[in-house]
Design brief:
The protein has 138 residues and is of the alpha/beta class. Helix content is 25%, strand content 25%.
Amino acid sequence: MVKITNSPEETYEFAREFAENAKPGDIICLDGDLGVGKTVFTQGFAAGLGITEPVNSPTFTILQIYDEGRLPMYHFDVYRIASPEEMDELGYEEYFFGEGVCLIEWSTLIEELIPEDAIHVLIEKDLKQGFDYRRITY
């Protein structure tokens, strides 16, 4: 399916609604170029789970855990992972197969670790369509 958004607020709202159907064990693979709105999507998704604390990209910590919503959210940003083996050091399986929802930015960098039933979300921009235009494929 495809959703077109034309502002960060629309992307946020789409992700908030998307999260309303999230269930324990869901893994959302969130991919797209730098600056397409992966963090905005994650912030909206968190709001949809009832998480009210600030949500930022965990680029330097790789994993942020938010557990105040209706489901825990495990937000991975694997952009700086040198190899999938580094995920073992984080104990990723505890999160992937736990009771929460995982959002994984840059999931293609660890695709061999991603379960088959993961949900893939690709965010793309097209400057010909406007600066804030986003095509979200899921």
